[in-house]
């Protein structure tokens, strides 16, 4: 009889991930974090020659900026908002009574001015726009943040709260497309150094609804998004661990980013799924890091 133990079960059993009772919301062990720290150091080394400006935002962002970004038009199924109790003392008494009666106490919550960050780069664009016109050589940023997307799953590579490392380029079309092309090569070299099997493919974002289907087709036709895929949960459906995105002038128009030539700035980014790469390493090399190939250990630990 075949084993029904899943990769997620194994990660729980080994203590690498910690079950919280919510699919896609996990604690991480010290070893899991150590692997991640070493991976991030490797990413930093690959991007160091470009001398990006390092910025770190919290895992929540302005609701006003979020609304302006247009995220809800394309991905309403993934968004998460922060709701809070905003009532009077009398409302608090009612709230306590509802809890005591095991009712739905969340009905008294109201949306705050904060939403959960869906991608590390979203808070960056208005921040950069406030600086004024971009310099002649554009701008390049190094970001990392916890992100939220509401897609609960038993697949350990599809978490609701996860970390994303990004390099974001702003400038002319030539500047940002050159940046993406460079990272398409770098990304494959980096994952190759980790001894992981990979596949590079044209992709699209998970746009919602009928209009979303047309947006997805357009995105693929214009080759605006590439993903570097690694088998984690299954060989048949490999997981996107890196993505390479050309936004064209979408964020430039939305947040009034202007290139040095007075034109609307274009943007592009490369994103690394932090937990996903760690999971890929554990899946392909095993949960005992001491038995990993020496070349992989050297790449991560030196």
From TrEMBL:
Keywords associated with the record: Ligase
EC number(s) reported in the record: 6.2.1.n2
Enzyme class: ligase
InterPro entries (alphabetical): aa-tRNA-synth_II/BPL/LPL (IPR045864)
Top-rank taxon, per record: Bacteria
The keyword Ligase is annotated on this UniProt entry: yes
UniProt entry tagged with the keyword Ligase: yes
MF GO annotations: ligase activity
NCBIfam families: PRK07080.1
Protein name: Amino acid--[acyl-carrier-protein] ligase
UniProt organism field: Phreatobacter aquaticus
